[in-house]
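step 4 of 6: structure.
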Amino acid sequence: MKRLPLGPLYYEYSRQVEPRLRIEPGETVVVETEDAFSGQIRTNDDRRDRTKMPYSNPQTGPIWISGAEPGDALAVKIESITPTIGQCVTRTSDPNQLAQWLGDDCPHGTHVCPISDGQIHWSDKLTIPYAPMLGCIGTAPSWGAPTTLPAGPHGGNMDIVEVCPGNTIYLPVYVPGGYLYLGDAHSAMGHGELSASGLEMPAESVITVHVLKNKRQSGPRIETPSEIVTVVSGCPMERSTAQAFAQLILWMEQDFGWNRWRAYDLLTHVAQLSIGYYGIGTVGAKVAKRYLNQPS
Amino acid sequence: MKRLPLGPLYYEYSRQVEPRLRIEPGETVVVETEDAFSGQIRTNDDRRDRTKMPYSNPQTGPIWISGAEPGDALAVKIESITPTIGQCVTRTSDPNQLAQWLGDDCPHGTHVCPISDGQIHWSDKLTIPYAPMLGCIGTAPSWGAPTTLPAGPHGGNMDIVEVCPGNTIYLPVYVPGGYLYLGDAHSAMGHGELSASGLEMPAESVITVHVLKNKRQSGPRIETPSEIVTVVSGCPMERSTAQAFAQLILWMEQDFGWNRWRAYDLLTHVAQLSIGYYGIGTVGAKVAKRYLNQPS
Amino acid sequence: MKRLPLGPLYYEYSRQVEPRLRIEPGETVVVETEDAFSGQIRTNDDRRDRTKMPYSNPQTGPIWISGAEPGDALAVKIESITPTIGQCVTRTSDPNQLAQWLGDDCPHGTHVCPISDGQIHWSDKLTIPYAPMLGCIGTAPSWGAPTTLPAGPHGGNMDIVEVCPGNTIYLPVYVPGGYLYLGDAHSAMGHGELSASGLEMPAESVITVHVLKNKRQSGPRIETPSEIVTVVSGCPMERSTAQAFAQLILWMEQDFGWNRWRAYDLLTHVAQLSIGYYGIGTVGAKVAKRYLNQPS
Amino acid sequence: MKRLPLGPLYYEYSRQVEPRLRIEPGETVVVETEDAFSGQIRTNDDRRDRTKMPYSNPQTGPIWISGAEPGDALAVKIESITPTIGQCVTRTSDPNQLAQWLGDDCPHGTHVCPISDGQIHWSDKLTIPYAPMLGCIGTAPSWGAPTTLPAGPHGGNMDIVEVCPGNTIYLPVYVPGGYLYLGDAHSAMGHGELSASGLEMPAESVITVHVLKNKRQSGPRIETPSEIVTVVSGCPMERSTAQAFAQLILWMEQDFGWNRWRAYDLLTHVAQLSIGYYGIGTVGAKVAKRYLNQPS
């Protein structure tokens, strides 16, 4: 099994750097990623030093997948995500939009949480079940080089809990080779990512990558053992919600034989929404697979 | 057990009509409600007739609760919700915000679904598990009389799935007696209520109402067996999401001894969001009770 | 000329109170209005006392206009707005959404500004030209009783600068008699009404009211000497902007013979937007009259 | 006077291409730009051919300004904007968010408009005064390479009418040399850019560029003969409006000696808002210079 070790940290989904690893479709690889703070915080006394690294969410990559061409899609199965130093760290700073209700005196601090026995030790008294996910995964667009802050049709900083072991992430390919990047592993994450800072950890992810030829997607899709999910980012969330629903309906139409207006009717009653970082309006619209094969 | 039968249908949360039922705190009552279409659609051939009734979501009420005064809260435990005619109905019309992606040729139609054996028979082939909820529940404000379309601090048309049997809804009291209204039962509902029309049914709800004295709330709260939830409505959803989180933090501070900034940090990692009708930006922010008694 | 003096102050657009004045179409009347703070602040030492009056923007009315029926529109020409006590007052409190950038230590204060010689004396050094407008004008809906905080199809707290002398405000009629209310005069106002508090003054407005029979409008419209304007309120502002443009296009189609898609093209190049209180997303879309009579 | 002729068209604000022109601070240069459609539409029969060029808004540049360093600002005075082929062109396609009110049958078409005698000949009957502006102007960020669709702290596709002759645009410098790009000239433009397509023209702009050392800005600023303007892009517009106001207040504090809360109070009464392309939430907050030198 190939391994892509930590190396240069990238903060953009750029088509203009040299691929660090080249794989064949169907290969399984291990990818090491640094945490969202670029490793600046390893103890409670450490702080973000923006003079040394002003950006967040370093990515490992890009990975070149043989045969991936514009108009294809990558299918990235996440096999596992493992912490590499047995801990994660989070950080509080300004409460941003919550300042109007809570005040602006949130103490700026960092907070290391050991991970053991399937639990994240958030405090002496409180543990959170280990439920890892990747905040960022994406391909390089042919137009522009998005930073690791927003999300978009290429994926990016989606911060949605469904990017986790057992699930497959489908991403559009915009340039030959696909240029796959990943990073920003969290040991657990809530909906909305309230403070914009997760339980950030350096991690080792095992992924298997396939190429779906001529599978044009307008944005990221996710398949879980029991659901399919479309992901749209962007504010206002009313718009990304509407668009994520529309893409889910079109997916049901194209791949599962549904009439679009019947799907529209059904989803009103059975769809679920999963919200990523609310500040960038990431919305996942989901439907259980059990409904898919019963077009009506 | 007292029963409040169908009677005049109200389409406003008004303090200016005569209470139809007066109860003592702690009483359990049965409340009959008409469906969201005011009963106009009982067969697939029926259509909404807006010339006869232009409004939606008729309410049964108001119920006067003895001793409820401004500054108190009502605790409304929903014991059960039962369909009264063994069926529900839904309706498609214009796709509104989705027209830009799906076109505007959605057939306008109605669709009756029998309910039996715990299943909603949406089509010959596809059933949806019966999981009833109330789209609307609210008290009368002292300022203004909201219609049954929006939601707000008084409750109203929240369309959030947590208003269901087994849960308790806490609502602010603004006028003596509280003036509780409910209606708009759905036999099941997805997040977001995509088409703005649920699986609407006339129903019979059993509720138990207590008064919490001097319990000033800034909006609706819900308690499930395993979670507490704050609900905020209004667009853009980024704002209602932030506000729902802020209210959840303040609830943790006031009732569970949490430091607000520790709660802010925790919720980033463990909160869940439940989205009601996305067109009016209803957002529920939730945290599992298992975390509440471990302030840190 | 009839005069409607100050009397009971109303804080809702309600169809359920007794009209205080009945007029014929075409009549000109003088209407006295209290300021947005219900007259609680007359000196720099006064403060808002919400225990005595928790609501804002008291209205004078309702005025019954003979012959106004649902489906008609009122045309309210504003002839003049005059301060009644030679001063206005403003007030700062929490900076709300700006707290995240500016902090939350805005001093809570009131600030009386004399008005003389066509100038508002905001400070010893700085004067603002007197340019009065009405923050609120509206009719009573048939469904619900909106408070004087939001705006909507009935008008209400639009806080848009075009509601000023020389202009005509067109409002939908929902109930017999129309039930016209007005209040919340400002001696001047910027776009957006940043702090949500204007230069509030008790005032005397002279208005002339006509009835346009069978003139169904989906919301407020304004005619200035040189422009026509549609007004839509509601967040997110992207949606109210789109909707205001759509209503302007439909107005051009219905009354001026424009093809809707030609109007759509034209407005891209020549439309103007006027923003009311940004917190409730009030947007006015405008086009110069000189373009209207050249449909193409 | 140096001239930067048309050359390679760039569709990103990238720091990774070779500067095409190097100038000294204070130099005046002529910059030729292609139209937003990359010159694909010169007659009414031409159509956008996205197979040949899928992107919009080509830029000319980058221009290297000697001595510009991160933390500085560029001051770009626009001296003039002149059409190079005596015409502009616009284009209608899908009505996007307006489809829900207007339907989705907008004819897809192009429309050439001759420019002469200070008028744009939009149709046989209707002319629009020539009032040119640049839809895009910006510097290259150090993090990411934005496309020419969004706008941001670096400038970009702001589509705001104040980027016009006589005004000075202040832009942050993120990388040595600044890397200034411009393009997307319009012969006139309304607020909101309803259809997302302006009156697009190839043009020749004369600009004078100065460097303001150690002038850290959080985003674009504009100075007109009578006003100062801050520009913020991003949805929802409520948020960009609030942020633009906050930046205007901070500018008044830093450069004009205002107390921030006095400025906050003043702007409520006298600020103006100028809306760029509403789909990306570009908002300019403005205050008249006559108020600036009277801090109070």
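step 5 of 6: annotate
 - Helices of chain A lie at 99-102, 237-256, 260-270.
 - The longest strand of chain A covers residues 73-83.
step 6 of 6: archive
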